[in-house]
Amino acid sequence: MIKVRIVKDMVAMSQELRRLLEQASYGLDDRICLHGQTWSPQMDIYETPEIFVLIAETPGMNPEEFEVIVDRHHLKISGCRRQPSPPPYLRAHQIEIGYGRFERAFRLPSPIRPEEARASLEQGLLKMALPKEVPARTRIEVR
Questions:
Q1: pLDDT of 19-30, one tens digit each?
Q2: Structural domain of 55
C-alpha cells in the first residue's frame, strides 16, 4: 500500500520533499558524489603587485577532492563535497549545509605564471597563490 500525505501549504510541501529525499539517500554509499546536488563555496580573491591570492571555504573536503586548472588568464576550481551518512536513528529537522559538486571559474585581471601556482588546504580553507607574469621589458636605444 502506498502512503499518501496531503500537504496544504508550500512550506510544509518543501519540508516533506526534503524529508523524502533524505530517506531516499540513506542507503547510498557515502563515497558517491550526487551530481544533482550542488553548492558553491564562498571565495575571496586578493591582489598584490606580485601575486593573486584566492581563499575558498571548503570545510570537510580533502585535497584529492579538488580539481584546479589554471592558464595565463583563467582559474577553474571544481570538486565534490560528500555528504556524510547519518546514523539510521537520526531524523533530520533542518538541512542547510550544501553538499555535492561545485565548479567556480574566474578570468584573472592580468596574466599569471601557471607553472608557479601553488595550492594548499588548511583548516577547511583552500588557499592558492598565483604569481603574476612579469611583463618583458626591452630597453630601446634612442639615436
A1: 666 655 544 444
A2: 30-84+92-131
